[in-house]
Amino acid sequence: MKANVDSDVCTGCGLCVDACPAVFEMDDAVATVIVENVPEDALNTCREAADNCPVEAIKIEE
After folding, report:
1. Looking at residue 55, which CATH number applies to its domain?
2. Average pLDDT over the chain, rounded to an integer
């Protein structure tokens, strides 16, 4: 599974980093993905981060 953050849409709220720090980090004012493939132990929290993104900036590729 891969995650992607649309930096043009991201508002930098940080919810994704709080939910899944293994995959996301803040870079200036927006979130970025720090791994190419989501680790097995972070699959559920990564999906949670995408589901909870208030502007739907996170897309998941299964």
Report:
1. 3.30.70.20
2. 97
- Take residue 59 and report the two structure tokens written for it: 């897309």
Q: How many domains does the chain divide into? A: 1
Distance CA 40, CA 13 (A): 25
Question: Which helix H or strand E contains 15, and what residues bound it?
Answer: helix 15-19
Task: Compute CA distances 45 → 2, 8, 22, 28, 59, whole Å.
Answer: 13, 23, 9, 22, 14
Residues 6+ apart with CB under 8 A from 44: none
Whole-model pTM: value is 0.94
Report d(CA 13, CA 55) in Å as an integer: 10
Determine the structural domain holding residue 14 and report its residue range: 2-61
Amino acid symbol at 43: L
| Total residues belonging to the chain | 62
